[in-house]
Amino acid sequence: MVNEAADTRPSGPGDLAGLRRLVIKLGSSSLTRDDGGLDLNRLDIVAAEVARLASRGVEVVIVSSGAIAAGLAPLGLSERPRVIAQAQAAAALGQGLLLAHWRSAFQSHYRHVAQVLLTVSDVTRRSSYLNVRQALHELLEAGIIPIVNENDTVATDEIRFGDNDRLAAMVAQAVHADLLVLLTDVDALYTAPPSNPSASRITRVDDIAALPQVEIGGAGSRVGTGGMETKLAAARIAVACGIPVHLAAADELHRVLTSGTCGTWFTPSPVRRPSRLAWVAHAAGVAGRVTIDRGALRALRRHGSSLLAAGVTAIDGAFRAGEVVGLWCDGAEVGRGIVAFDSEVASSIVGLRMSQMSSHVDTPRPLVHRDDLVLFRDGRDPDTTVGA
Ligand SMILES: Nc1ncnc2c1ncn2[C@@H]1O[C@H](COP(=O)(O)OP(=O)(O)O)[C@@H](O)[C@H]1O
Ligand SMILES: N[C@@H](CCC(=O)OP(=O)(O)O)C(=O)O
């Protein structure tokens, strides 16, 4: 088991001598050839680099897109389908092909791979998040390379990542990675989509919250999703968790792992947020809304109090105890927390003091405990989130 106490994170690009655990994400655009099929040569090159790291004792998780792209040709499709059922069929077919190729790419290096398919709720619901984390740790300890992708066939439109960038950031956070490498079809973050002649490369971002005006475009290829926007979202999540991010072109993986003189480096925030609070802050699926009054907000902000039902004015949405809810005050989302009661029970105790709750609940307790709470200092940007 890796010693979590030692700081093994690189201090800058290329400083990987002490690296213990790494997440590498490959986008569809870098795993597919121009004619749409999977680029097996690329998989082989990545497998060779990863096997080299693994032989040094570095634990690596690969987040691999490409299932839908791999399923297009066998289904007789020439481009990514818009109809969700077709995309799901392509993913179901393509995921098998994708994993078979990863397996054979690693076979020559005597490494096993394991398929891990995740949905949004697997990383946002605390119980399944912990299971995922344990399974990944178990695989890494056994020297196996987990190949992670979104479970596209079961994910529905409203509750899917859609891109694998944010999924990769959540995985990096779950396994306490030292570094997240985002590999794509563009060599860096630019000040504007690279098709714009005035766009210039950004080699380093030390404070993502103060990123200079960057014009973000959509995906550059026929197969990619999300473009730079989801990569920046992923970088925000990772750096807030204290994990540096190196964004680079897929064919520069060797340089990322050696000199580091390529791509865009995102410096992590100095404070490594406890993973549980990061999970609450960045949970993609917020199950409901709890509106609180100003007095309650003041108590949370100034005194680090738990959220009591007495300070709640409304409950919206249907949620279960243990899910993440947004906390709202005066029309703005002021924080998030793990709620202690199902929505029906929560609705029945709105405005009640602890002493008045016993006829509604077995054990009167705060609606959101302070240990399960994050507050947004300024607007909704999780960069400015502080633990309560
Ligand atoms: N400001 C920007 N800097 C760099 N690339 C950008 C920018 N805005 C948009 N892009 C586009 O984002 C694309 C990468 O995203 P995407 O196609 O989703 O890749 P992937 O499949 O690797 O996730 C690039 O090809 C590029 O055209
Ligand atoms: N899960 C999907 C990936 C979705 C997607 O296109 O992601 P990406 O190319 O990383 O933006 C697949 O395997 O096809």
TrEMBL record:
One of its GO terms (biological process) is L-proline biosynthetic process. It is an enzyme of class 2 (transferase). Transmembrane segments: none annotated. Its EC number is 2.7.2.11. Coiled coil: none annotated. It comes from the Bacteria. One of its GO terms (cellular component) is cytosol. It holds the Pfam family AA_kinase. It catalyses: L-glutamate + ATP = L-glutamyl 5-phosphate + ADP. This is Glutamate 5-kinase.
